[in-house]
């Protein structure tokens, strides 16, 4: 007896949904190096770059719970009633997070956080506070555009996402180039202003794009049963938000470990450069999460998406190997990242330690997307805990061992942690994928497509 549906998800459909998301992530990963490059060319670059690092890190932590609004909207905005409920929840989340940001930026709490908790040097505190004030709209802008982009992805309009990212990058560059040309504003003013201009431009564009989709498609979409409730959303969303918050623990953990291993100054200096370089290569894989969530509704999606994930994972790590084995990597670290010549070789060698990160990140998104689609998101939090345990154990071993350069241990720790996380998600995602395949088979039987 033939037990497979006669239809299958076309590869062109996968490409149609995925490529705009991948391109959007690549564009976004370019944003931060551009901002840092401009700040480095303005007055007092050391102070302003350090302040920008503090501002961006703190603002990222505050807005972290809103990060997964994209996945939530993609997975749950399937009919008009669900959209309205999610929109109310979204506004509530963003209001609370924006108020927290404002309290830190505009009240004496700022000095408690910067001086007492983070231990920021005295000369950086006031520039960092000014940057935090300018960054106040960031949480709302990023959260709102993520939520509306989820609707666009769910209703097969993912291409609009890349145009929003392009407009965001154009807005960034206009402000950055104007600030560089004028030369009268500090880098900590120009950088945050540019990122806010870009984010708000993208949010306005997402709002404009989604209006006809809401009117013509979401309102007429079949009603989802059972109706989405607040408890349903909480069970789905809280593990995702916790995942993001736990992941943010990784950065200070790595920095603390690198400062206690051999060659601490060199390792700390090149860590953000090398890790940022590797993030660019992971960006295509990161975007696969939302593509999987959107495409698993299609018949035959599991087998097709599994093959695509393995082929794409292999290709991304192969392309990274080619770049690292040729002068291209040296050109990047020398002219784009502007590393001193003495650190370029160390950066290239440490980047080799992350050769498998693009492949692991793509496979992680494949398994995580399936779990998110099934709404059983607790497994994702479990995987992040495993990630942190493996990462911390490897870093601790490097501190105790004291024979390997810190940046090598840092990259190796991230790689081993991603491997363990991916293996756990592979194990936990199997019931979700099996349920999708059973659904496809039952639909095919009902339609007479199988014998």
TL;DR?
This protein is an all-alpha fold and 451 residues long. The chain is built from 18 helices and no strands.
Structural notes for this entry:
With 451 residues, this protein is mainly alpha-helical. The protein folds into two domains: 40-234, no CATH class; 249-451, no CATH class. It is 82% helix and 0% strand. The protein contains 18 helices and no strands. It has helices spanning 11-39, 45-63, 69-76, 80-106, 109-117, 122-134, 138-154, 159-182, 187-218, 230-248, 250-258, 264-295, 301-325, 327-336, 341-352, 357-374, 378-401, 406-447. Mean pLDDT is 89; it is low at 1-6.
Question: Can you give keywords for this protein?
Answer:
2 domains, globular
Helix segment count? 18
The beta-strand count equals 0
What is the global morphology?
globular
Computed structural class? mainly alpha
Q: What is the end-to-end distance?
A: 6 Å
Return the domain count: 2
Q: Mean pLDDT, rounded to whole units? A: 89
